[in-house]
Amino acid sequence: MRSVCFVLVFCIAAVMVSSAQTFMSVASFDYTNGSAPSNPLVQATNGNLYGTTNQGGANSTSGGTVFEYDPSTSELTSLYSFCSETNCADGFRPNGGLVQATNGNLYGTTSYGGVNCQEQLGCGTIFEVTATGAVNTIYSFCSQPNCTDGRYPMAGLVQASNGNLYGTTYKGGNAGVGTVFEITPAGTLTTRYSFCSQANCTDGEYPVTPLIQAASGLLYGTTAWGGTSNDGTAFRITEKGKFTTLHSFDGADGRLLEAGLVQATNKKFYGTAVYGGANGEGTVFEMTAAGKVTPLYSFCSQTNCADGETPQAGLVQGANGDLYGTTALGGVNVSEQFCSGTTCGTIFEITSTGKFKFTSLYSFCSQANCADGVTPQAAMVQATDGSLYGTTSSGGAYGPGSLFSLSF
Prior knowledge:
Strand content: 25-35%
Number of helices: 1
């Protein structure tokens, strides 16, 4: 029955969103292969897309999964269900995406579990996924007294030019409000920075976003809170840990950053804030390498927030130079079943021809029973076939989320 249902959903899922773009729901999660996919996808060198789900899987704990999607066959496969080991020593609830390292393996984090915590405590792990789909835990957080090595990572990793992986933890560290760490592919971890090292946490606290390595070789990231207005910060850090606060958000330019930055071909950085801006419902902003921030767009600028609101996902720059992103709420469709009585999210595009222009491309829950998905919370990725791929955290053919594409 599921195979028949999937074929039917797949066949009706293609929607022309403009004369140049086509939206298609290409796969649906069904709890056993995962639920609530809210983390970015990555395309590996074999051409397939890989990701994690925050919940679902084969285990009763519903601790999340690692999955693989083959664009050539539209086949979605669960590779691993977390909490497969005693006391969830392998971790559970991954809140970040995956990164493929130069050795060909994928690396990611879980927010809970590990060998140093009780089952429901937020400690977390760093894991490796081999080419055969095997998952190996290479580090368990809270391995040091008082969790000075960090705990509760909520973001994925980035491999820097020195070959090591870098990431952030939401809690732990010297002040208990997060860290920046470096880890070798073999599992040796070094804490490079503990947040709230400055008076009144002006350097930021509680980072929930992944780091990126800029063309300059420096690492850039954001924090959800802290800074001079407690609305979050943007920072840079060297591979050895020299830390610089670049910007303190003040609400007008954004508040609460839950998505990472992207460096565009013009060398500037772009990101989203969940709240703040002219209407209080989030922003898209631009930042220079020196930390000058300029708001580009305030969401909910259209009647009934038809343009979207509360963007929880980051941006991706397409091959055409435009920026693409999603909002978790807003749009023109409402579903009491899947969206808790609110609007269900959008896909948008920001073009630049000397002046930035915002365009709404798609409103989720445009199909019966929200078969196209609702509430996208993760950044999209542009695959080698030119299409953008992303996930929704709920909706789809079975309810717990979908995987979609936007082709040009």
